What we know:
Blueprint: H1 2-29, E1 46-55, E2 60-70, E3 77-79, E4 91-93, H2 99-134
Helix pairs in contact: 1-2
Amino acid sequence: MELERALRISAAGMTAQAARLRVVAENIANRDSTGESPGAEPYRRKTVAFGARLDRALGAEVVEVRRVGRAAGEFPTRFDPSHPAADANGYVRTPNVDSLVENMDMREANRSYSANLAVLETTRGMLSRAIEALR
């Protein structure tokens, strides 16, 4: 049934976006997590990669989280000679998490989640009306 396919495809999209929101929340929660000793690596921003997967039972491709990776790049530094992770020059490596980027990712994931939810609710309404028509 086509309506069931629409429900399952929307649910897969919601699941993928919920995973993305969890990763964004983890990044935001750790944006101040530095190393504990000089030279220790601070928290490295996580990223989410999506991909399409063929669901043979549905006969359609659905979105899924392919992997949760780590963002490459250098860590910013800040001058704080009293910090336990400060190097010999007094600089501390800080996480490569940018609050603005995380906020944009969160908004995009939220909008995608909401769009999938709207499709799910519309499809559910269509199913309800079809059932009522059959009574």
